[in-house]
């Protein structure tokens, strides 16, 4: 029995995704910059190709003002070098005029033939600090406009921030049908939960104890139910998996063995989400952990000493990690977004030890969004006007 009702109640598989380090977030030793792991197109696209080769079904492409890759440009560049893996592209609402964003997404979706999913984010822009309520209001309006662009003939929106009337959606029609690309969203504040419950498809969580995750799911479901909707749920978590638990724990300690805590704080503070409620919960988990950094069996918070956002890892043997993921699935989690340091090496460890034992799926296909043949859209096989 799942913790709350989920959209994909009958789905007996999970979308297992990896992470491409577009934003200067790849290390052999956490917090020690390594030029060979810089966020170049070559390195980040190598992670994509390795993830696809290993059988991961999606890959998160994050967004931040760091040395690295622009998210949508990177995804476009990966279209010709991939043919199976989906892309979870982070879009920061308000960066681009929303109708033009809808068109950009439609272009990418056609380039990828339906392999595009979107991670909606609402954090601040570089050099700017906006009121949280305003940011979520803006995001709510952007997502509403995107959904209109993908499901209606015209965009008609009369909001506080954006006003449009009778704008044709022909240039913005995506490859995916029945609603367009899936929207993944994470956030802990009441405004965040309202946005996800009203507009999005998958509620993403950062690692906490299972009881805390269950509480997050109940809070998100309450807002979705108020709109007559259900959600699916996803977990973003790091991985350290080895043949034995001792080997995994030793590698986790090795990973932070050269970390300077002052530099780790600097890394955390430079992220645009560093002041968010979700980040404060990750910090609280570190405070509650035992002397080795474990807040519950196999959930290690040490990785959060040098990164904002997702701040814990599953650390253990193949069987332990697989068992933990199965427990999460029983709770109702249908998407896992995984990563590990360095990302190529840890993709190999997880992808050869754990992934072959999991039944995986592509959520856009499970939702019936991806057509079996090129759709009759203006960019597909539709009539030109």
From TrEMBL:
InterPro entries: Luciferase-like_dom, Luciferase-like_sf, SsuD_RutA_monooxygenase. Keywords: Flavoprotein, FMN, Monooxygenase, Oxidoreductase. Its EC number is 1.14.14.5. Residues 366-385 are annotated as: Disordered. It comes from the Bacteria. GO terms for molecular function: alkanesulfonate monooxygenase activity. One of its GO terms (biological process) is alkanesulfonate catabolic process. It comes from Agrobacterium tumefaciens str. B6. It is an enzyme of class 1 (oxidoreductase). Residues 40-334 form the Luciferase-like domain. This is Putative methanesulfonate sulfonatase.
């Amino acid at each position: 029995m799942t913790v709350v009702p989920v959209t994909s109640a009958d789905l007996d598989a999970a979308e297992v995704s990896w992470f491409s380090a577009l934003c200067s977030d790849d290390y052999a030793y956490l917090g020690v910059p390594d030029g060979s792991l810089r966020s170049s197109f070559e390195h980040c696209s190598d992670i994509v190709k390795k993830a696809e080769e290993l059988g991961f079904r999606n890959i998160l492409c994050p967004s931040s003002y760091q040395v690295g890759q622009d998210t949508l440009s990177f995804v476009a560049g990966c279209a010709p070098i991939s043919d199976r893996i989906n892309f979870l592209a982070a879009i920061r609402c308000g960066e681009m005029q929303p109708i033009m964003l809808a068109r950009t997404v439609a272009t990418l979706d056609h380039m990828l033939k339906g392999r595009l999913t979107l991670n909606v984010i609402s954090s601040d822009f570089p050099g700017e600090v906006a009121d949280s309520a305003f940011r979520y209001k803006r995001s709510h309006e952007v997502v509403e406009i995107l959904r209109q662009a993908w499901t209606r003939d015209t965009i008609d929106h009369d909001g506080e921030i954006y006003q449009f009337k009778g704008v044709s959606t022909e240039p913005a029609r995506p490859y995916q049908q029945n609603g367009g690309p899936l929207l993944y969203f994470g956030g802990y504040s009441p405004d965040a939960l309202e946005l996800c419950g009203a507009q999005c498809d998958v509620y993403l969580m950062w690692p906490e104890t299972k009881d805390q995750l269950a509480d997050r799911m109940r809070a998100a479901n309450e807002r979705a139910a108020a709109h007559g909707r259900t959600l699916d749920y996803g977990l973003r978590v790091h991985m350290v998996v080895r043949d034995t638990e001792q080997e995994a724990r030793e590698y986790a300690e090795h990973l932070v063995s050269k970390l300077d805590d002052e530099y780790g704080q600097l890394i955390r503070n430079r992220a645009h989400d560093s002041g968010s409620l979700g980040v404060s919960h990750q910090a609280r988990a570190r405070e509650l952990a035992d002397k080795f950094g474990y807040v519950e069996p196999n959930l290690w918070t040490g990785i959060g000493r040098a990164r904002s956002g997702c701040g814990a890892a599953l650390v253990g043997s193949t069987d332990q990690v697989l068992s933990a993921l199965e427990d999460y699935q029983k709770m109702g989690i249908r998407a896992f977004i995984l990563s590990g340091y360095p990302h190529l090496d840890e993709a190999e460890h997880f992808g050869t030890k754990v992934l072959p034992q999991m039944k995986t799926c592509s959520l856009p296909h499970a939702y019936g969004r991806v057509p079996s043949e090129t759709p009759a859209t203006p960019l597909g096989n539709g009539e030109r006007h």
